[in-house]
Amino acid sequence: MSMGEVELSCLAYAKMYLHASQFPRCSVNGLLLSSSAAGGAVCITDCVPLLHTHLSLAPITQLALTQVDVWCSQTQQRIVGYYQANACASDSSPTPCALKIAEKIFEQCNNAVLLMIDGEKMFPGCRVPPIVMYERKDARWALKDKHTIMLRQWEETCSIVNQLFSSGDQALLVDFDSHLDDITKDWTNQKLNAKIMELVSPANGNV
Amino acid sequence: MSSISELYDVSWEEMRDKLRKWREENYRNSEQIVDVGEELINEHASKLGDDIWIIYEQVMIAALDCSRDDLAWSCLQELKRQFPDSHRVKRLAGMRLEALERYEDANKLYDSILQDDPTNTAARKRKISILRAQGKSSEAIRELNEYLEHGLSDELTTTTLSCSYAKAAFCLEELMMTNPHNHLYCEQYAEVKYTQGGLENLELARKYFAQALKLNNRNMRALFGLYMSASHIAASPKVSAKVKKDNVKYAAWATSQISRAYQMAGRGKKENKCSVKAVEEMLESMQITMS
């Protein structure tokens, strides 16, 4: 993989998708993480779902960013991006709030990505990943060339997501908002992560 | 059987006025309402003008009370014909289903209202009364809390937030005035103030986070909010020594409460150890920067 390329793992994609599906009438957002070293291509290996209410309010967002930061340093991960799905499915353009948070991440990570989920493409059987990515170029966030976005084993990823829905495991997803409502819930989603990794076929260790 | 007007020597106008009085003063004298209303509708409908619709509603509800499904049904039909897409009429249809103990059908109707209009408190209330009728009291209580906490205000603030923080603050101020015991409004107001920024807003934010905690000492957002706003105020070069000292105290208090809450949450639950650890470390590191 070369510079400018972004790889999105099955785990990260599945959780983002589940997050958007869990709150279909809300805007949702979250952070994209990488467990690979900095430099070169960006490998998004995991994500942390953050909010489904009042995305543009500062205190909880700041709190979440700080906590995820701490967790990342504990687990050798880095925050490399931000995702958002707008409540209005037909509008997948980044909101001012999305741009603000992405800027903050860019301050710490110079190949940070901003990922918008395209609600209109989120239906079963859709052939293309329902995502639009932006990168920082010339002091603004520009649309990324689709060909630089790698989603390995797309069909397998789709099938894994479907399996999560049919087994009911999609309900395991916890976002930061839900954690604040009940702090015994785990926003790092250890349980769900394990279930997803079980479904990822062992032959493709790098999905 | 002689009519009401004959029996009591009243005119149709007086009957209509009686119904209005009972409506306005919320009497549930259903049998009387049925007697008077039924006759009014059958004999004098053409004279009632637009009053007739509200009379249909009143009589329908009373008819349900008296197990007069025939009358309830005919009133409902008239209302449905006149107001085919009305949520209010749908709710009445739901009430009839409840009276017939067809709770699942009633719930379906209320759910369809709520899908269209999640702020429809009447539909929510009916759902709660169904749970009570079915003897599911703990579920009823849970729904009631949901309704109180995530009621119509949520929609209001969500829409105003997308327009402007100032508008959202205004909207929340009004909600707080009419619902002084609602900790969520205090907490949301505090969040808006914090977001607007500046020392004055931060101090307001801190006050309202504290108020939210007074109303509900388990509101984690308020606890974290108190911690963050107090810390920022304490760190500001513009505040007096006394204000700084006070806010350091508030922040310290908040920290201990947060720690305690997470320690209790972490007990025995293997799966949330990660998130608990993250908070502990975060609090530790923040302590260091504060001192």
From TrEMBL, chain A:
Coiled coil (residue ranges): none
CDD domains: MPN_UPF0172
GO CC, one annotated term: EMC complex
Pfam families with a match to the protein in the record: UPF0172
UniProt-listed InterPro entries: EMC8/9 (IPR005366), MPN (IPR037518)
Domain MPN: 6-140
Gene3D superfamilies: Cytidine Deaminase, domain 2
Family: Belongs to the EMC8/EMC9 family.
Subunit annotation: Component of the ER membrane protein complex (EMC). EMC8 and EMC9 are mutually exclusive subunits of the EMC complex.
Protein name stated in the entry: ER membrane protein complex subunit 9
Organism: Cyprinus carpio carpio
TrEMBL record, chain B:
Protein origin, superkingdom: Eukaryota
Any one cellular-component term (Gene Ontology): EMC complex
Residues that span the membrane, as ranges: none
Keyword Ion transport: no
Subcellular location: Endoplasmic reticulum membrane
Membrane topology classification: Peripheral membrane protein
Keywords: Endoplasmic reticulum, Membrane, Repeat, TPR repeat
InterPro entries: EMC2-like, TPR-like_helical_dom_sf, TPR_EMC2
EMC2 TPR-like domain sequence ranges: 90-193
Record flagged with keyword Membrane: yes
Annotated family: Belongs to the EMC2 family.
Subunit structure of this chain's protein: Component of the ER membrane protein complex (EMC).
Protein name from the UniProt record: ER membrane protein complex subunit 2
Organism lineage: Eukaryota, Metazoa, Chordata, Craniata, Vertebrata
